[in-house]
Specification:
Layout lengths: L12 H11 L8 E2 L1 H8 L9 E5 L13 E5 L7 E4 L2 E4 L1 H10 L4 H14 L4 H22 L8
Parallel strand pairs: 2-3
Antiparallel strand pairs: 1-2, 4-5
């Protein structure tokens, strides 16, 4: 990774370094901290990721070895999917929840993240209701897909 002399090492220095690693040598843009790492940056939920999750464009080809502890996700992010926290590009709460639902992360963690995001003022009550519904809809679809098929009689 890189050491950045302009920022003092601190709580988020490893996230800045991950973004700089991806952008080195005119790397892809946009790049953002994502998934459970985004929850940690926001300080919502009990997320404590063991690795740094970073999302780069779907067509990005990073031609250098990925540092240990960095997980690179490939997906196209719009400008509306990214916000800046502590000077670091991070996926929005809504995009983060969508990414974590898609990756099959723990829904209890996501419910807690929505509640914490609302309490901290990151999202509105309307946003919170919409995200809770999305999580519940996801849970219902999981339950219906895991049910055994009904036996048929001929």
């Amino acid at each position: 990774m890189y050491r950045v002399p302009y920022f003092s090492p601190g709580q988020f220095s490893q996230y800045r370094e991950a973004v700089l690693w991806a952008k080195a040598n005119r790397g892809p843009d946009p790049v953002a901290i994502s998934h459970t790492t985004a929850l940690a940056v926001y300080g919502i939920s009990d997320a404590n990721p063991a690795s740094i999750h970073l999302t780069v464009p779907a067509d990005a080809r990073l031609r250098r070895k990925t540092p240990k502890g960095l997980i690179v996700h490939h997906a196209d992010l719009s400008t509306g999917d990214i916000t800046v926290q502590e000077g670091i590009p991070v996926t929005t709460i809504e995009r983060t929840i969508a990414d974590l639902l898609q990756s099959g992360d723990r829904t209890d963690l996501l419910k807690q993240a929505v509640a914490d995001a609302r309490r901290e003022g990151y999202i509105t009550e309307t946003d919170a209701v919409r995200l809770r519904r999305r999580i519940e809809s996801h849970l219902k679809s999981l339950r219906s897909s895991t049910k055994a098929p009904e036996p048929t009689t001929a």
